[in-house]
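== Polypeptide entry ==
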Amino acid sequence: MSDAGELDLRAIMPFAATLGLEPVSATADEVRARLPWAESRCTSGGVLHGGALMALADSTGGACAFLNLPEGAAGTTTIESKTNFFRAVRDGHVEAVSRPLHKGRTVVVVETELVDAGGRLVAKVTQTQAVLR
């Protein structure tokens, strides 16, 4: 991590490393990570695959939920995720910014914005994470 964050995504989430996520920062208030554009992550026409974008958002959203678990919780798991796509990504990188919307005893709701290297909104994801006991 470039920030002295509380959580290293690549260390605790092996899939984040497999996907090629680059952790930026992680606190209970906000988790950030980047996914560089790469041809191997694209669909037709050199467009970054929607599944790669959703995996980025799910990874940072899950980490954000984990950092906001109530006392005594053992973990979290995604039970619902809603994605709206707004633009294609054909180069550069995408940065995910996840923030908690609701921190409850049984669920944590996180909103993630995906922005491209130019700061334009690529997608918005709202996910619900179950609190595991």
In short: The radius of gyration is 14 Å. The chain is about 20% helix and 40% strand.
